[in-house]
Write a structure and sequence with these properties.
The protein is an alpha/beta fold. The chain is 44% helix and 14% strand. The chain is built from 15 helices and 12 strands. Helix 11 packs across helix 14.
Length: 350
C-alpha cells in the first residue's frame, strides 16, 4: 500500500508538536509494509505540480490513501482531489479550537470561527485520526460528521538515546545548578506559562523552559511579558538543536498546561525517567495516574506542594520516574505503526 503522509508547510512546522507527530508517524510506518510519500505534488511542490499540469501530466502523485496532518489550503486541495478520484482520505486532528486558544495574539478570538472551519474540514474525511479519546469527544461536540479514531502520537525513544550524556554540557550552557524544574516545547500561555513563572517566584528552585518563543507582533501579551522580564530563577533558552539536552538538564518536568490533545513532550520526559507534574485536565486522565507515574495538580498551591514533595524525597522522584518509563513504553512507535496500518486497511476496504 502506498500512502501519502502530508505535512503542509513542513519547513515551518519542524519546531512544532505537529511536526514531531508527523515525523513519528513516518518513523512508525517504517516498521510496517506501508510505503510512504510525503508530497502529493508531481515535482515535489505546488509550483512543480502546476508545471506538470500544464504539460498534461497532472498535478498529483499516485497513492492509495491520502493522510493529511494540517488544515491549510494545500491539505484542502489534497482532500478535494481525493474526493474527485475516490481516494480514501484520512485527516489527522492535531488542531482543535480549544488548544488553539491562548497560543498566539488574537488566537482566543479566532477560536470560534476556527471551530466552524474544523467541523467542515474534518467532516470531509473517510476517517479522522486524533491523539486521544478526549480529542475525539471534543470533535464530536462540534459536531464532526465522520468516523473518529484515537491513536496515540507515541514517543520516539530512539531520538532520546544517550540523553544523559548531555546533562553537564547543557546545565553549564544555560547556567543551571541544583534541582531544575523544567518544561520543553513552544512557549505559549495556553501551556501554563504564567503558572510556571509564578511557581518560580514562589520557590527557590531553578526553572528552565526549553523551546522557542516569539516576542514579535503575533506573540501574546503574556509571552512578551514573561520572556522579556522573567523572574531571576527562570531561564528561557529559546530553540535548542538537540532536545536530548533539555531532558538531560532538567530534574522535574512541570507542565501546567490548560489544554492539550496529548502532549508529546510529556511522553518524552517520561521516557527519560523524569518525575512529571501535570495539571489535572481531562486529556491526562486516560494516559496517566496520579501518584503512580506522575503528580497531578489543579491549583498553583498544589503545584508548589508537589514540587516541594519531590525536591525533599529522592525516592519518590525515582519511583515516579521508573513508573513513567513503563507508561511511555506503552506508546512505542511500533504500536503506532500497527494502528496506522490498520486504519489505512480499513478505509481502503470500505
Amino acid at each position: 500500500m502506498r500512502v501519502l503522509n502530508y505535512l503542509e508547510l513542513e519547513d515551518r512546522l519542524d519546531r512544532s508538536g505537529i511536526g514531531t507527530a508527523a515525523d513519528q508517524q513516518r518513523a512508525a510506518l517504517a516498521t510496517t509494509d506501508v510505503s510512504v510519500v510525503t508530497s502529493p505534488w508531481i515535482g515535489g511542490s505546488p509550483a512543480g505540480a502546476a508545471a506538470g499540469f500544464l504539460r498534461g501530466h497532472g498535478a498529483f502523485r499516485r497513492y492509495d490513501v491520502a493522510h493529511c496532518n494540517v488544515i491549510g489550503p494545500g491539505s484542502v486541495a489534497v482532500a478535494r482531489h481525493a474526493k474527485r478520484t475516490g481516494t480514501p482520505l484520512v485527516l489527522h486532528a492535531h488542531v482543535t479550537a480549544e488548544d488553539f486558544a491562548e497560543s498566539f495574539r488574537g488566537s482566543t478570538y479566532l477560536a470560534g470561527p476556527l471551530r466552524r472551519y474544523l467541523r467542515w474540514f474534518y467532516s470531509q474525511a473517510d476517517l479522522v485520526l486524533c491523539p486521544s479519546a478526549y480529542t475525539k469527544r471534543t470533535l464530536e461536540s462540534y459536531p464532526v460528521d465522520a468516523p473518529i479514531r484515537p491513536i496515540t502520537n507515541g514517543v520516539d525513544t530512539a531520538s532520546l538515546a544517550g540523553f544523559a550524556d548531555l546533562r553537564e554540557a547543557y546545565r553549564e550552557r544555560f547556567g543551571l545548578d541544583g534541582l531544575v524544574v523544567f518544561s520543553v516545547g513552544n512557549v505559549f500561555e495556553r501551556k501554563g506559562l504564567t503558572t510556571f513563572c509564578r511557581l518560580a517566584q514562589d520557590t527557590d528552585y531553578e526553572f528552565a523552559w526549553f523551546g522557542p518563543y516569539d516576542t514579535g507582533p503575533q506573540a501574546s501579551e503574556a509571552v512578551r511579558r514573561w520572556t522579556t522580564n522573567p523572574p531571576d530563577n527562570v531561564t528561557f533558552t529559546g530553540w535548542v538543536d538537540d532536545k536530548r539536552g533539555a531532558f538531560a538538564a532538567g530534574d522535574i518536568y512541570c507542565f501546567p498546561t490548560k489544554a492539550e490533545n496529548q502532549g508529546i513532550a510529556v511522553l518524552e520526559a517520561m521516557a527519560c525517567g523524569k518525575p512529571v507534574v501535570l495539571r489535572d485536565i481531562p486529556v491526562f486522565e486516560e494516559f496517566y495516574t496520579d501518584g503512580h507515574d506522575c503528580l497531578k495538580c489543579e491549583t498553583r498551591a498544589e503545584f508548589r506542594e508537589a514540587l516541594d514533595r519531590l525536591a525533599a524525597d529522592p525516592e519518590l522522584r525515582q519511583r515516579l520516574g521508573e513508573n513513567a518509563e513503563e507508561t511511555a513504553s506503552e506508546h512505542s512507535l511500533s504500536r503506532v505503526g500497527e494502528k496506522l496500518a490498520d486504519a489505512y486497511a480499513e478505509v481502503t476496504s470500505d
